[in-house]
Write a structure and sequence with these properties.
By secondary structure, this protein is of the alpha+beta class. It has a single domain (about 5-115), classed as GMP Synthetase, Chain A, domain 3. The chain is about 35% helix and about 20% strand. The protein has helices spanning about 5-10, 15-20, 60-75, 100-115; strands at about 35-40, 45-50, 80-85. The chain has a 3-stranded mixed sheet, with helices on one face. β2, α3 (about 60-75) and β3 form a beta-alpha-beta unit. The protein is elongated. The mean pLDDT is about 95.
Length: about 120
């Protein structure tokens, strides 16, 4: 199991606000995965995640944490998953993955061209 494989799984957890914007994005693309530690262990790797939400009042933190624990925990070679929600993180649009920023801009431009 690699960090890249774990990040790919975390990116399958879609932020509902991004879906509502017409450009669904996962936790990694949204810049919500603040820390990922992968430590080999005798009974499988231990994973510690720290994730954030986009706004202090966002109610998705617990849901994101539960999904991350379930999905990452189901991966082969994982023995333990601990997920922390970072309530102090200040998320900014600049945290978006560059590829997602481009995709979001394209979706918004297409909506503007389509008109009301």
């Amino acid at each position: 199991m690699t960090e890249e494989e774990i990040r790919a799984e975390l990116d399958r957890i879609v932020d509902p606000c991004s879906a509502a914007a017409g450009a669904p994005a996962g936790l990694v693309e949204m810049g919500l995965v603040r820390e990922l530690e992968l430590t080999p262990g005798p009974d499988g790797a231990r994973v510690r995640l720290r994730i954030a939400v986009t706004e202090p009042g966002c109610m998705m933190g617990a849901a994101f944490a539960a999904q991350a624990e379930e999905r990452v925990g189901a991966l082969a070679g994982i023995g333990e998953v601990r997920v922390e929600i970072d309530h102090d993180a200040d998320w900014l649009p600049s945290d978006l993955a560059p590829s997602y920023r481009l995709r979001l801009a394209e979706v918004r431009a297409a909506r503007r061209q389509a008109g009301p």
